[in-house]
Amino acid sequence: MLAPAGSMRAWRVRQTYFLIIILMSTCSVLARKSVAQTLHSVSQALPAAAPAGAAQRQPLTMQSRVGVRRGVQLRVDSPRAASASIPHLDYYGGPIISQVQVYAVFWGSHVNSKVRIGIGGFYTAITGSALFDWLTEYNTTIPSLDGSPGTNQTLQHGSFAGTITIAPSNTRRLLSDDDIQAEIALQIQAQVLPAPTADTLFAIYFPPGFIIDDGTGHLSCHDFCAYHSTMASSPHDLYYAVVPDFGKGSGCDLGCGTDPIRFNNVTAVSSHELIEAVTDPEVGLATD
User: In terms of pTM, does the model score above 0.90?
Assistant: First the structure.
């Protein structure tokens, strides 16, 4: 999740992710620890966002937003100073999205025209770029920390699968995450959205005037800039991201990026959610 204004500190750490990758692309790849060490140094300066609560697992319904977090986390091996320690990535089990296929889903026909026109080119470029090559440190071809087998996945280049404009049955402008999940399920049943595969990510973009409650009482453009989560479904869990409008007066125009071109702020936030979803997709499913 990305948070604006006073809660932006955690977001800025993750936004720095791609800046770090671009700077480091001129250097040789020393080991899979190198990116983690750089991220750790940045994360020491700014705190991470707090996790949310939990819910019961049901098909096509909201799960715990964080709960028992599965995937990769940073750890410092010793109490030495951060500059002297050797941080690395710990794998706690769970899948990644191996070859992400991103659908840009527009919540109705009034999503910002620049987003509608430009977002496909952004996802096409980033999922096929060398930036994705750095994410192979998240491959799950190793045992998890407790010794159980990994999911034996390798992270590869993805693709942009296309844009889809839905006509939501829910016309309210104050939406909860449960509302969004219910609408996704309806649109899949109506065959407007495709049935998800293990690589599908629905990136949902909203028009001006919509306020989204992420399920914890936090509101879009006031408490967060965007988030991603998970729905339990069969045969594949469903992964999605929620990106509100960044237009003038939304609140996201002031707290979710400093680029004078708002579309650039939208893509910065979108890249954050994309990389989080790809490397740790099942944040919405708490399992023992």
Answer: no
